[in-house]
Amino acid sequence: MNRCALLQRLWRLEGRRHARRLRRALADPETAQGALLRALVERNAETRFGLTHGFAAIRSLEDFRERVPIQPPDALAEWVAAIRAGEPAVLTRDPVTRLVPTSGTTGPARLIPWTRGLQRQFGRAIGAWTHDLLAEDPALMGGPAYWSISPAGPQAQAALASAVPIGVDQDSAYLGRWLAPLVDATLAVPGEVRRLQALDAFRYATLLFLLHARELRLISVWHPAFLALLLDALPRHRERLLADLAAGTFTPPGEVPPEAARALGARLVAQPARARALEAHDFLDATRLWPALRLVSCWQDARAADSARALAARLPGVRFQAKGLLATEAVVSLPFAGRLPLAVTAHLFEFLDDAGRAHWAHEVKPGECYRLLVTTAGGLYRYDLGDRVEVTGRLGGTPTLCFLGRAGGVSDLCGEKLSDAVVQDALDALLAGLEVRFAMLAPERERDGRPGYVLFLEADRTPAGLAGRLEARLAENPHYAQARWLGQLAPVAIEPVRDAQRAYLQAEVHRGRLGDIKPAALDAREGWRARLGAARHR
Question: What are the φ and ψ backbone dihedral angles of 126, each rounded to 5 degrees?
């Protein structure tokens, strides 16, 4: 048995207890969720939030609902401000170890508290998933994996003043102190690669380490477009990759900090035989590069569905597994037993129906659609995630879910989570002083097939540099900045339109909407270029 297989076997054994716990909980989600709630309110009763909302008097799920109002995302800001100032026991008794940026609904970004308790909750879900995965296909343990939970990219929020570190930790930090080093040793690409700030260098380093991993068995990413763009870069760097593979060197394109280049280069071992074997390869067929690759795990719901199908066509013979709904704030669902059940052992969940009524996990109905609320050990209580899901059935007594998309005027093509309120603020600032008759941001496909956003503008003039300044405002959202940095989104375009208000109203009337048409700074639907007759202009 090789070292990688041995370590993955240990990882599977560690996950077995989480899988057993999940199987028991799936049969009785009401009991499992009630136990989670009792543990959370008892542990955090003496925090400022717990004292404010009377945690000590909470005895049941219904008590909790009566005492704690639904928390919109931006209600978190005042509590996080106290954490940043160094105040202890604000939301949780567990110390906050870092604040993780995510997109805001009415501002550029929010900071989500990360605690040891929240890490344990993530670990329960991820442990159950990986145990189930490796038990179902033991051959996955025969080689390394490329497993990325949090994508690479710039972390602009890290510069904010705070008593607590701000930013995303290593991917394996989700797994805990002792398991993380074990898992790191099974990964094809070391975590340090994601720290490279130049996109070409990041992609090149990732590809080089992947080429070194001939026995690669598993790839787990967020959006399928992330992997597709990585594969697109293979032919462009072919000669350089082959040279570095043969010599065991790291000579990325562009400038890389010398210490980073040395550290990554020290991890590489010369593989001249593999380089010679690949010399006749055009690098267009990825399955020939990694003949042992067995599974790709990625998003396949909502806006990711088309990208997932296109990626699967490029990797014939490789099984694709739909990744569950995983957010910065919480694990909502996970692949388990061939389904996507709610992560009932991780966090406490509620489901809001279209009438605004809240339901517990054991109360929801298959075929119905809901908006998610979550309560976590990181200090989120009845927190509105803004995600809409459909209940597709049940596994035991627990609902299985399909992610439908973002609710409440949010556009999410590949994880960027742009909200109408944020776009409106940006347009108000950038278009001040103009005579604006129509201004709306909407997604469109560019000529190269990439999605991107277009500002359809009817005004007395188009200010010079507007596209660049709008891009900078949108990039204050860390998820948008990430998607742009990775090349998943095209740059913002400005497209002048004429008589757009009439065309917009006419299009909405054709959809059967007459009495409830409301102007919006952001429309998440594609196709407005054709409806408005826009003229392309960057």
Answer: -65, -35
